[in-house]
Amino acid sequence: MAAGVVIVGAGQAGFQCAFSLRADGYSGPVTLIGEEDWLPYQRPPLSKGCLSGRQDLDGIALRPVEFYESNRISLRTGERVSAIDRVGMRVALAGGGEVPYEHLVLATGCRNRMLPGRERVCYLRTRAEAGLLLERLEAASRVCVIGGGLIGLEVAAAAALHGLEVSVTEVQGRLMARAVGTVMSEYYRALHTHHGVRVRLGTPEADWSADVVVAGIGVVPSTELAEAAGLDVANGIVVNEELRTADERLFAIGDCAVYPSRFAGGMTRLESVQNAVDQARAVAAAICGRGKPYAAVPWFWSDQYEAKLQTAGLLAGFDREVVRGDVESGKFSVCYFRGGRFVAMDSVNRPGDHMAARKMLGGRAELTPEEAGDLSFDLKAAAIG
Amino acid sequence: MSLFNRKPKETISITYISHAGNSRTAAVPLGTSVMEGAVSNGIDGIVAECGGACLCATCHVYVDEAFLSLLEPIAEGEEEMLGNTYSKRLPSSRLSCQIYVTKALDGLIVQTPEAQQ
What we know:
The structure holds 2 protein chains of 2 kinds.
Chain A: E1 5-8, H1 12-23, E2 30-34, H2 44-47, H3 49-52, H4 65-70, E3 73-77, E4 81-85, E5 90-93, E6 98-100, E7 103-106, E8 110-112, H5 127-138, E9 142-146, H6 150-161, E10 165-170, H7 182-194, E11 198-201, E12 212-215, E13 219-221, H8 224-228, E14 237-238, E15 250-252, E16 257-261, E17 266-268, H9 273-287, E18 299-304, E19 307-313, E20 320-326, E21 331-338, E22 341-348, H10 351-362, H11 369-373, H12 379-384
Parallel strand pairs in A: 1-2, 1-7, 2-3, 7-15, 9-10, 9-12, 10-11, 14-16
Antiparallel strand pairs in A: 4-5, 5-6, 8-13, 16-17, 18-19, 19-22, 20-21, 21-22
Chain B: E1 11-17, E2 23-29, H1 34-40, E3 60-63, H2 65-68, H3 76-82, E4 93-95, E5 108-111
Parallel strand pairs in B: 1-5
Antiparallel strand pairs in B: 1-2, 3-4, 3-5
């Protein structure tokens, strides 16, 4: 019997790869190996719906167990791959045993960057961490969030909406500095302040006496397995435009993969559902013999209070921001340009702009700064071009 | 009082009919979405790639006409995504992640399209 596909990591990317392999008609064995004990689950609700109270931690599984059975996906949760034998084409499990592969997909994701020597700090990446955080928030009245990135701000917004006293500390001079431009950062600073959150920028000083301290200070890609197997690692597992490593039977996808992106103008590593899902689909297609260069438009979203942030493209190296609409109204977009070229858009409560931007960035449509700032300019029509 | 954790909820019955005509009925808790009801019961035909953020249009359904008027109107974000469905948009088209389960919807019938992507 053929060795089939082994997927290491059962997060969004790993799950999607198994799903897409079957949807694409792959008939060989598929093994999905994950360290966590749960069925593969969605991570976005951990900082969104589960904190707001709309969703239960019990309701975030990507699919029920029967799905894996009926699709002949061998799901091995609570198991860790300890080594890759590229010559023998098999992986070794920490708990003993080996699984042979014809193709190996590394979807190992990331782990939290931690604050050293601070035992009491909560993090939010896994379901177990979310459970612990929820338990602590239940009993809290004062919360300190360290890190003014997406996760930290989503936690801050949920806690503030539940009536807790919240502070956010960010060492950089503005919020979400990695993800959005200066106009958007300022909008979110004002929004959080309006909801009673104390936002401290440009300082490492935190409210350590708060009942709960949560750190969202970024993640580190899990590359140890790849590195030990002699693969190229540089802030992630290095892959080519087909998401293959130097070993053509090995792929890397999702948060752990560094790939060449025309949107980034070079190698990049993205942490988003879109990136996980689209890369997983691309690799499933490649394994089925229908591979093509990966070129999906990056996008993500964030829910904070009534503001729905949607981003399209990558704003790396932008030199001009153009606001579309009225920031004060809470319905506006910011368009980013690099050397006069439209490269990204962030939208707050303007889903039409967002979808048009995704289409424009994925196609050939151009957008000038003048058009971007003119609300009477029909973005949707221009996107269809 | 629990601020963050939801209590177990009552359920209603929702019938999902596939493009091929196979029908499955599931008990779906109040306050969750029609998409979540499908996904958590392993019902094919609803992909829900973005997990319910109204950003991917892969949970497209055709709602039985008897129930259409009971639904909340289509919001701007859903309208945008309905313009991007893989299968044809019809007057009965909705994104199932945007239909939240209420008692009034008990017995809801939705049909899944031929393909979601």
